[in-house]
Automatic annotation (TrEMBL):
Signal peptide location: 1-28
GO MF annotations in UniProt: linear primary-alkylsulfatase activity; protein dimerization activity
Keyword Signal in record: yes
Name of the featured protein: MBL fold metallo-hydrolase
SUPFAM superfamilies to which the protein is assigned, alphabetical: Metallo-hydrolase/oxidoreductase
Keywords in alphabetical order: Hydrolase, Signal
Highest taxon, organism lineage: Bacteria
InterPro entries associated with the record: Alkyl/aryl-sulf_dimr_sf (IPR038536), Alkyl_sulf_dimr (IPR029228), Bact_Alkyl/Aryl-Sulfatase (IPR052195), Bds1/SdsA1_MBL-fold (IPR044097), Metallo-B-lactamas (IPR001279), RibonucZ/Hydroxyglut_hydro (IPR036866)
Domain Metallo-beta-lactamase: from-to ranges: 67-279
A single BP term in Gene Ontology: dodecyl sulfate metabolic process
């Protein structure tokens, strides 16, 4: 099954400009009226329509077989595989689709980085002879020190990707389909056998000249692959058609945003005729590919520079998150719409990555514990009952974020109607989700609401 070029071109012409809802209701740039949010997310699904895209005469990319892409380069006496999906089942299905174009043996597998959705299905591509497998010298460093927080990260991962949402609630994951075969994730991983040094590697495999360039960005162990003869560039997850996930709400170590921008700028210097991202459809036009990379690098750097200016002006992360915007000429580009990454999330991550948690305001050095603060908020409202009324009124006005914040105060108060507070929080989360076209935000709101409703969450997390 091959995807026609016409359908790929339509992807880039099918987006609708966001219609932001009333500022009194919305608390995020990715909040729009529910009908528009759903229309935008449905449009984005064209970016991972399942099938094989023929990039050049000898390069083929399988899209939509899992969350990420896997590609096959056909050489004289064998093929080269770029990334291997999450597990053997999805990798096997993708490889069968790719095999329509060549049955030559696999001579090499190249990992663009060590995220599980790019490395877990390698065994499906291994034949009678073990191919060479390439990764960077620091391959495996994608998660950094956050491995210690593995248990809570796993819970947050499930929410971010909406893994437990019902079919009625599911849309997609921003750069991937909602439903993927995850039961065998990682079961087919085969470790790298050849390390790519920091200064890169130029080599010939199966008669194909290619270059591997180390390029930290979404991960510290990322690299991109360049085919000089076909002018094809495989970007890994440093580029895909969405504003990049400079911070993942599942929880990640700081991703060096400035390095990410520089790595994408380096890709643009190659002026590729064909750009194959780690997720979403390849871009098969030279001008479009170079423009996309240039814009992407500029957008990332702009968010970084604006955040740094805010920091040095003495502003805190909350204020900066509401002030930083993409440059006006980039906001409507389809590859920079915030389907996956979020500008406000990015600014907070940059702030924390550069300065840590303290915002410089002595008021926040030792803030009141939540229970005491809730009591004082209730006193300001005229008592617990009045605070409860304010919470309900916020929900009725569809001021969902304020309703959420008041419900969190209510949970700490003796004599409060905690069941009502829980119901309000569930309704507010679903209200925000309906207005949200950022897929991780939407999935997280809905997943958390479901956990609250089922009683799965402890009182701490209420």
């Amino acid at each position: 099954m091959s995807i026609p070029l016409k359908s790929i071109a339509l992807v880039f012409a099918s987006f609708v400009a966001p219609a932001i809802v009333s500022p009194g209701i919305a608390h995020s740039d990715t909040q729009v009226d529910p009908q528009t949010a759903l229309k935008m997310l449905n449009s984005q699904q064209q970016q991972f329509q399942k099938g094989v895209v023929q990039v050049t005469d000898n390069v083929f990319t399988a899209v939509g077989f899992h969350g990420a892409n896997t590609s096959m380069i056909v050489g004289k006496d064998g093929v080269i595989i770029i990334d291997t999906l999450k597990g053997p089942q999805s990798a096997k299905e993708a490889f069968e689709a790719l095999r329509v174009h060549s049955d030559k043996p696999v001579k090499a597998i190249i990992y663009t980085h060590s995220h599980g959705d790019h490395i877990g299905g390698a065994s499906a591509f291994v034949g009678e002879e073990m191919p060479d497998i390439y990764g960077t010298e620091n391959f495996g460093s994608a998660e950094g020190t956050t491995k210690a927080a593995g248990p809570v990260k796993q819970k947050r991962n499930v929410r971010q990707f909406g893994r437990k949402l019902s079919p009625m609630e599911s849309t997609n994951r921003g750069v991937a389909p909602a439903l993927t075969a995850d039961h065998d994730g990682g079961n087919g991983f085969v470790p790298p056998t050849i390390q790519v040094p920091d200064d890169g590697l130029k080599t010939t495999i199966a008669g194909i000249k290619l270059e591997m360039h180390v390029a930290p960005g979404e991960t510290d162990d990322a690299m991109f692959i360049w085919l000089p003869e076909g002018k094809v560039l495989f970007s890994g997850d440093n580029f895909y058609s969405s504003f990049p996930n400079l911070y993942a709400i599942r929880g990640t170590a700081y991703r060096d945003v400035r390095s990410w921008s520089e790595s994408v700028a380096k890709m643009a210097e190659f002026r590729p005729s064909h750009l194959v991202p780690g997720h979403t459809m390849p871009i098969l036009d030279a001008e479009a590919a170079v423009t996309a990379l240039t814009d992407y690098s500029r957008a990332i750097r702009s968010v970084y520079d604006q955040t740094v200016r805010g920091i040095n002006a003495g502003k805190g992360p909350d204020q900066i998150a509401h002030e930083v915007k993409l440059p006006a000429d980039l906001r409507d580009e389809p590859y920079l719409i915030e389907f996956y990454g979020s500008v406000p999330h990015a600014t907070r991550a940059i702030y924390s990555g550069l300065l840590g948690w303290f915002d410089g305001n002595p008021t926040t050095l030792n803030p009141l514990e939540p229970k005491i603060k809730a009591q004082k908020i209730a006193e300001l409202a005229g008592g617990t009952q009045q605070l409860s009324q304010q919470m309900q009124a916020a929900l009725d006005k569809q001021d969902y974020q304020w309703a959420l914040e008041l419900s969190d105060h209510m949970k700490w108060l003796d004599g409060a109607d905690r069941p009502l507070a829980r119901k309000v929080k569930i309704a507010a989360l679903r209200g925000l989700a309906a207005q949200e076209y950022n897929a991780p935000n939407r999935n997280y709101y809905l997943s958390y609401a479901n956990e609250l409703e089922s009683g799965e969450l402890s009182e701490i997390w209420f």
